[in-house]
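Ticket opened by: R.M.
Priority: normal
Category: complex prediction / small molecule

The reporter submitted a protein together with S-adenosylmethionine and asked that the result be attached to this ticket for the collaborator who will pick it up next week. Submitted input follows.
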Amino acid sequence: MNLCDQKTVKNIMTAFGLHFRKEFGQNFLTNKLVVEDIAEMCTDTAEGTILEIGPGIGTLTRELAERHRRVLALEIDKSLIPALAYTLGDFDNVTVVNEDVMKADIAALLAPAFAEGPVSVCANLPYYITTPILMKLLESGLPFRHITIMIQKEVADRLVAKAGSGAYGAITAVLNYYGVAEKLFTVAAGQFMPPPKVDSAVVRITLHEEKPYQPKNERIFFRTIRAAFEQRRKTLPNALSAGFPELDKSVLTDIVVAAGHSADIRGERLSTAEFLTLADMIADKLAEN
Ligand code: SAM
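Result attached by the on-call engineer:
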């Protein structure tokens, strides 16, 4: 069964009374080489489980099932479940669960998989909800080996951006805290059915086994990054002052300078390690007050 063949996809959709649902970001991949590459490159071992978010009609799922020990696929759209039973019927290592990934208890769903071996995520994500899904996966604290996601190209550029570049944002600084992101390749809009309005790219995140950054207070660390980027055109002391109204602006300026920066630097120039130093100093100051 070739689920990259547009006629086959149309026939299955008709047979199961399906239509592409925009509200769920349904753009199915139709380039077999791309699907094979994603399944191949998503992690470095075939011994583990792959969590797939949004299997659609099973295009990527089949390739994952051929290459990995087990696949657990979460699909929000109930109407796709009978079609998936058909397209994945010849695999005994795939489990499909009809759940919204944002509501699912992924720790509980994956507990048996983690007991058995490494677990990675591989998904052609619905673009309307990319960042919340990525943050949920990272913040879950689950020891994923890799998270490989197909996302909008602009978002991919943001994830791998260097500090100080235009694409660098809060999500980049936060992501670096959890792991290292690399862009594997880009995919043109025409390789999907129906084609989305934007080009896409595949990003693989290798999670840190041991976090190289240990903030004194994680909440303040994230707050510091958020404050810096919420007002990214302002100088860092001004941006921090809006984000930490409980501290005087002069105190925040002193902290920025004591951390080795000029008082007119903008937050977008700071690396994750530099945000950590700053956040620890803010945490100390808040503890004094
Ligand atoms: N994996 C297929 C492919 O590559 O051709 C389909 C990818 S399509 C871009 C995104 C898929 O995610 C759709 O099947 C959609 O129904 C599903 N989806 C959207 N929101 C979801 C959510 N919150 N939880 C689980 N699946 C979701």
